[in-house]
Design goal:
Layout (H helix, E strand, L loop, with lengths): L1 E9 L3 H14 L4 E5 L6 H5 L6 E4 L5 H12 L4 E7 L3 E2 L4 H10 L4 E10 L14 E3 L5 E3 L2 E2 L2 E2 L9 E3 L7 E5 H6 L12 H11 L3 E12 L10 H18 L2 H24 L3 H17 L20 H7 L9
Parallel strand pairs: 1-2, 1-4, 2-3, 6-13
Antiparallel strand pairs: 4-12, 5-13, 6-12, 7-8, 9-10, 11-13
Helix pairs in contact: 6-7, 7-8, 7-9, 8-9
């Protein structure tokens, strides 16, 4: 069994690969595998210029969740660790060995993410993962360094190691055994929040998840779906509800779901009056599609647990109390 593999999932990211793959090759110790989700652009032509990289071609676009799970299932038994990396990430020297060495010295930890900074604004945290990810009681994700769209400047305030609720899919190192015991990413999600769901399931199994500030990478973000794309709104809201239904205790879920209906319809109304009607409709569609899907998960076995959320009520703290930083709460 080999130590680790760096696995990058690609879909129509030819220019992104051309720009960022050289840094991954330059600074990485472990082999690099590109799984291509049936790209329709020039991605495969670009990859021909990097013979040191192994390329796996999928027969169709399975999304982030389905693509990764399908590819990693084919590697089962070959590696101790997987390092999952978005194609739009610039890495730094010894980044991969830093993550794997950390996991080697913490055998009870299933997955680890580094400090994730913004590539366009390198002194600031990135939206996806930042200084460690958590969930509030309503299932809204937040990070140290990012509340909603408010991003903090990196001033060394999160240079520690910390147990978290979830590790970012933009860059995470995960034990092979844990990934497969947790059944990987749920292909029904397609994209967005699949790593939060997997991490919650791993916590239910007794594993810990961690962030380390000792390794840093730089992430562009929005390479697959722009924040302005209504489909992103749809996936975020639908997948958030699925994640809560799958992992919360039943009584806890019932109370939270009633609250989420109110809060999400409020968000839909705000989008409507901001003249962003497509986003408004996508929130409603997310709830309707959730109702078609949720029974699939009602009999899922295993203990269910609430989020660890250090900030219990993110909406209250952000919009009512005006707190914009993790350190203020």
């Amino acid at each position: 069994m080999q130590k680790a593999a760096i696995v990058i999932l690609n879909y129509n990211g030819g220019e992104t690969l051309r720009k960022f793959l050289p840094s991954v090759i330059r600074y990485s110790k472990f082999p690099i595998i590109i799984a291509d989700n049936a790209s329709e652009d020039h991605s495969l032509e670009v990859l021909e210029k990097f013979p040191e990289v192994q390329v796996i071609r999928l027969d169709k676009n399975y999304g982030f969740a389905g693509g990764y799970t399908r590819v990693l299932e084919s590697f089962k038994g070959n590696y101790q660790y997987y390092i999952l990396l978005n194609s739009d990430v610039e890495v730094t020297e010894n980044w991969d060995s830093g993550l794997i060495d950390w996991l080697d010295s913490h055998p009870d930890v299933a997955a680890l993410q580094p400090k994730i900074l913004s590539y366009p604004r390198p002194d600031n945290f990135d939206h996806a993962g930042a200084g460690g990810g958590f969930l509030d009681v309503f299932g809204y994700p937040y990070c140290r360094g990012r509340f909603f769209d408010h991003i903090e400047k990196d001033e060394g305030q999160y240079d520690d190691d910390l147990m978290v609720d979830w590790t970012s899919g933009a860059c995470m190192a995960i034990r092979e055994e844990a990934f497969h015991k947790g059944k990987g990413f749920d292909g029904d999600y397609f994209a967005h929040m699949e790593e939060i769901d997997l991490c919650w399931r791993l916590r239910r199994m007794g594993y810990s998840l961690y962030y380390t500030g000792s390794v840093k990478v730089y992430h562009v973000g929005g390479a697959t779906l722009s924040p302005s794309n209504p489909q992103k709104t749809y996936l975020n809201f639908r997948n958030s509800l699925l994640t809560l239904r799958k992992n919360l205790p039943n009584l806890y879920w019932s109370a939270i779901y009633i609250s989420r209906i109110f809060l999400d319809m409020l968000a839909s109304t705000v989008f409507f009056f901001k003249n962003e009607k497509k986003h408004s409709k996508m929130i409603i569609k997310a709830h309707l599609d959730f109702l078609k899907m949720h029974k699939k998960y009602e009999k899922e076995l295993g203990p269910r647990i609430p989020p660890r959320g250090r900030v219990r009520f993110l909406l209250w703290n952000f919009y009512i109390m005006g707190k914009r930083k993790y350190t203020e709460v």
